[in-house]
Amino acid sequence: MGDQVEESVDAAPVPVVLLHGITDDGTCWPGAVAHLRAAGDGRHVVTPSALWHGGRTGEGRTALTISALAADAAATIAATLTRPAVVVGHSMGGVTAQELALIAPELVASLVLVDPGWMQDDPADEGRAPAWLRGFAAQFENAPQAGLEVWSRTDNPQWPDDEHAPWAASKKALDLEVARIPHVWGERDWPAALAGLVDARIPVTLVTGDVAAGAIVDAAMVAAATAALGDATRDEGGLLTHVSLAATGHNVHRDDRAGFLQVLDAALARADAAAL
Fold this sequence. Notes:
This protein is an alpha/beta fold. It contains ten helices and eight strands. It has one domain (about 15-275): 3-Layer(aba) Sandwich (Rossmann fold).
């Protein structure tokens, strides 16, 4: 089920699970993993690869659904950890993390949603994989990994150097069937569905970028998420912490690694304090 680390019962810091975006895989968190391990506090870090990603298949599934991805992630966490985790998710991993918290709140201490894929299905796709994904993935099959890495470096010069090789390798590890099967992203109205976390009191950190630079989550979605969870900030007693990182697009954690890691550290500190 991906990169798993056994957790000892007496581990003090809350474990963290990192869920990647579509076409990435569990290796695509080099900055976060290095940062968390450098802390030297024994925090357990789990970086699973989703179905169809990181050398995995869809295991017999004939459609990509967020509910299936969340059930798969829940199985990984339940088999790996003995206590609730801070679940961090980017893009597809963000909606997977949210669905995971809705269906298995006992596994989740808090959420960090990094420009989550809060999208509805496009009728023009006629039940197929999204058009952008079909075109994007078609470029991976015959491209050498070295060429994909050059592509990443050319298109994303602002990314830290250690991001490009995992990005390229993840594209070669992708099961391209994921770009041929139907996708169902709109199983919920995702911002409004955050209301389902209120009874479980699961805190949410929402990290957003600039829509003009390619980010998904816009001001209307932030407003809907705020309404769903109550007060806008934890300082006001609510469950939502919203952080907008300027000059970032959809890949917020890559475009501004330092800013993202500050947000992650703050979320982990809150989770650790709540666990005492």
